[in-house]
Amino acid sequence: MFFPNLELKNTRKVYRISMFVFAIFFTVYIFPKKNNFQYEYQKGKPWMNKTLYSKFDFPIIKSEKEIEAEENIIKNNSKLYFIKNDEIVPNILENISKRLSLLDVIPYRDIIEKNNLSHRVLRHLKEIYNKGLVKSGVNIKSADQVVSIVEDNVYRDIIFEEMYQKDDAIDHIIQKLEIENSALYLPVKKILIELIVENVSFSKDKTDKFLERELQNIIYTKGLVYENTKIIAKGDIVTSEKMELLDSLKKGYENRLEGNVDIVSITIGFIVLVSVLFVSLYIFLKNFNPNVLKSNKHLSLLITIILFILFITCTIINIDSSYLYVIPFCSLPLVLRTFFDNKLALFVHIITILMIGIVVSNGFEFMFIQIVAGVITVLYVGNIVKRANLFICVSRITITYIVTYIAFTVIQSGSLTDINMSNMLNIMMFLFSGLLTLFAHPLIYMCEKIFGITSYISILELSDTNSRVLKKLANKAPGTFQHSLQVANIAEAAAMEIGADYSLVRVGALYHDIGKMFNPLYFIENQRTGSNLHDKLSPKESASIIIDHVTKGISIAKENKLPNKVIDFISTHHGTSTVKYFYKLELDSNEKVNKEDFKYKGPKPFSKETSILMIVDSIEAASRSINNPTIDDIDALVEKIVEDQIEEKQFKDSEITFKDITKIKEVVKSKLTDIYHLRVEYPS
């Protein structure tokens, strides 16, 4: 292979092009292929488009208020249904007859009355049961309400007050018997109370069934507009009547059969629009995030997340577009900003929302709400590693959704009081969408595992000094641990000064020397007594142990599954520099020295972040060898070490500039001055 770099570059280029081409055609494939109403309009505002004529016949759709009014009329006038059960009547009559025959309170002279009592009671009871003895507790609007009685699957209407309730039936029988003042009154009434059972009961199932049937029979249209009818002229105010016609026409466009749609024309239009947006994304990446284009993993993650959101959205639109606002669109920038910078997260969010705006109704309203919420997500959402911050983030997103949506609703309707059930449903969907945004955390974790990319959340979790690796370092090599903490603090400040990823630099600095756990006493910061183990070794052996801490550190990092981003700091923090002290010792005793034996294996720093660590690590370690340093000593040390690193071309693979290096040196000088409590000495 004569040109491996060229071949790798070409492979990446082919992969990039393939990803974008696939994204374009996949997006067009999943887009709903139907006519969309292309005009935006608002009630009370002028019609700014050309005079609009109907291109086809369409029905005028009743408004939600009209349908709601019809539903209320049906509900208020709906008939109650009762079931009559005459099978229980013979048993009841027989039991009452037996109990009456056992009465012994009637005097001998009234024996004829006793013989006729049962007959009279049963006769009146039969009349009552024929009309119907209904159970009490029925919510009836008025006594003269017409209800329906179901008997042997035969329905007949009756006025409710024509039926009896138990108390009324007993009073009626007593009155007909004319025994209010006789000895029969109490025993007869007691028997009737105990044994009379209602034979008519309210049927909620049948009532609800017939009500539902009536509601389903509501006609949702109220007229027909014919083809070529003028709907609205340019400049006309969109009144309630015009709004009704426009809404109906819009619905007609959306409901037209695919057979009436020119699929080829629509598909070509989709391809053009989607291609423009994806090409815009490519240009943005090339100019502002070229590293994403160079990494197949990062590009795959970016495209996959976009296509995932588009797929979910198109699925919801095909099922029922009214549930569009349930989708947590702000999860997109929330997830992306944990892997990329804020600019890219916001740009990708806007591009994705613009694509969705092509196929949704009320596109301007949808895009405005989602883009504003995306801006809030990217610019005003803090570190979501903490659960409290994630909840605050979701609250801000939800409030943004609701406030902007209500503002649009008020503009269109002209009043807050015109907010209807449909608007309330959308507000509820915004709340639900906010709750779904909480699932951004597990989504981030899945992306890390699937694509092998480390998010800044994982990086921040590694900065915890109670992690297993750092606690082990603190126990085995306490001096190295303190050195790492010092380097982390200085390097973080330097990274902030030049606009580098300070969180990543801090984590890299904390772990860069973990390889010293293998032979901690061979490193001066861990030597507690005056003895030095290197006195018993040759310079070459000592250099080998010193150099080996990089290899050992990489091994420990891989065993503990540290991200590659962190391992990069371990492997590059000495670059290909020379262990000068032992190299000079070897030169003093041996003229023939292989310098490669005293050089780190590299690689050299390849980013601003890894370059910062090399500079700060070397300076902080060297500063410990100066007894009672002055400000001039610190300045000279910083300049000398950085100059040596530049001479050795340690930064040639890095994007760091001389301007950045100058700023880093100033930060390091300032921090070391604070650490050693130095101050400028003024002449007496």
TrEMBL record:
Origin: domain of life: Bacteria
Domain HD residue range list: 480-622
Cited Pfam families: 7TM-7TMR_HD, 7TMR-HDED, HD
PANTHER family: CYCLIC-DI-AMP PHOSPHODIESTERASE PGPH (PTHR36442:SF1)
Species whose genome carries this gene: Ichthyobacterium seriolicida
Alphabetic keyword roster: Hydrolase, Membrane, Transmembrane, Transmembrane helix
A single MF term (Gene Ontology): hydrolase activity
Transmembrane segments: 14-31, 263-285, 305-332, 344-361, 367-385, 397-415, 427-447
Protein name in the entry: Phosphohydrolase
InterPro entries: HD/PDEase_dom, HD_domain, HDIG_dom, Metal-dep_PHydrolase_7TM_extra, Metal-dep_PHydrolase_7TM_intra, PgpH_phosphodiesterase
Keyword Transmembrane annotated: yes
